[in-house]
């Protein structure tokens, strides 16, 4: 068991439950799923290894796991249900909006009507083996703001009915984050954020409204793990090899050259005070705002150990944060 994290690496949730300011992202442990021939997962997985990694995270004090109804066409939720079940001391956040066929592992569309939301919530409850969903997040990033009112009305109803404890939006658009920030039960924004993408406008909205910033992509889809070289190519079933508009860190399955240069500019700074590169990337997020809660992905016990090990070292110092800003500015110039 880890020693208790420094106060700078704990956070109070919407229910006043204080947890380490680190969750585990469960996209990768869902295994392969597709849109036609395009991979949307991170390759093959071993479910027993995934369960062991989840148990290790809990042993090390991690209390929040983030998944989605479409990860692995539902398989990620099923693995969390198997590993955790209805434990009241573990917070599970899931998402809805993208439909998948669990038999074919194919994406079948995006939906946000009330009937779909309710069906998705019930399916997630069954897969996760929960009596209630701790946090249910809207997964459609660029959904029209004016049409989202009905979505969050439905979530308010589900909360009133005791199906969910709280809700949020997984979106990279500050205007969407702000639109529902004053609703009772709206507590989180999940958005891309890492040392390469500091998203000041989004953080401003989150801090102003007292929301929690759940940081997806905290390791830039693995780039900030340091394990990729210029000639390293991901597998055929890995989403990082897909030609998707939002896939900026990797091109044709290899590190995008512009991000490779940025990584080299900050590598040693992130490794300050004996941190690994991964731990430095997480420490950068904690230093960026007191509202941040990164959710790095994992597939193995070793990855969990490294991620959780960042808690003992806490945030980067203001001086190192300034040096990182200056190094990145020089690369972009």
TrEMBL record:
GO MF term (any one): oxidoreductase activity
Keywords tagged on the record: Oxidoreductase
Domain NADP-dependent oxidoreductase: 22-328
Record-linked Pfam families: Aldo_ket_red
CDD domains, alphabetized: AKR_AKR11C1
Highest taxon of the lineage: Bacteria
Gene3D superfamilies (alphabetical): NADP-dependent oxidoreductase domain
InterPro entries, sorted: AKR_Detox_Biosynth, NAD(P)_OxRdtase_dom_sf, NADP_OxRdtase_dom
Its EC number(s): 1.1.1.-
GO cellular component: cytosol
Name by which UniProt lists this protein: General stress protein 69
Species whose genome carries this gene: Rhizobium tibeticum
Name of the coding gene: yhdN_4
């Amino acid at each position: 068991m880890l020693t208790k994290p420094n106060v700078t690496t704990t956070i109070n949730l919407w229910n006043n439950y204080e947890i380490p300011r680190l969750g585990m992202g469960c996209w990768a442990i869902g295994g392969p799923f597709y849109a036609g021939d395009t991979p949307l997962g991170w390759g093959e997985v071993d479910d027993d290894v995934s369960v062991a990694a989840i148990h290790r995270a809990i042993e090390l004090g991690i209390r929040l796991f983030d998944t989605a109804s479409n990860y692995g066409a539902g398989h990620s939720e099923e693995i969390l249900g198997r590993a955790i079940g209805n434990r009241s001391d573990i917070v599970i956040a899931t998402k809805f909006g993208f439909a998948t066929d669990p038999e074919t592992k194919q994406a079948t569309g995006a939906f946000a009507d009330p009937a779909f939301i309710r069906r998705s919530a019930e399916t997630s409850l069954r897969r996760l083996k929960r009596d209630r969903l701790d946090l249910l997040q809207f997964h459609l990033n660029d959904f029209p703001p004016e049409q989202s009112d009905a979505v969050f009305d439905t979530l308010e109803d589900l909360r009133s009915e005791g199906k969910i404890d709280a809700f949020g939006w997984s979106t990279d658009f500050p205007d969407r984050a702000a639109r529902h920030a004053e609703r009772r039960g709206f507590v989180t924004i999940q958005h891309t954020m890492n040392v390469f993408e500091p998203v000041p406008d989004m953080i401003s909205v989150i801090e102003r409204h007292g929301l929690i910033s759940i940081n997806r992509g905290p390791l830039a889809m693995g780039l900030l793990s340091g394990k990729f070289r210029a000639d390293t190519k991901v597998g055929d079933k890995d989403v990082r090899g897909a030609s998707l508009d939002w896939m900026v860190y990797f091109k044709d399955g290899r590190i995008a050259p512009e991000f490779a240069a940025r990584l080299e500019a900050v590598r040693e700074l992130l490794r300050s005070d004996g941190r690994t590169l991964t731990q430095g990337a997480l420490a950068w997020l904690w230093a960026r705002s007191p509202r941040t809660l990164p959710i790095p992905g994992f597939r193995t016990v070793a990855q969990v150990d490294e991620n959780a090990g960042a808690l003992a070292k806490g945030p980067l110092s203001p001086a190192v944060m300034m040096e990182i800003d200056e190094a990145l500015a020089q690369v972009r110039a």
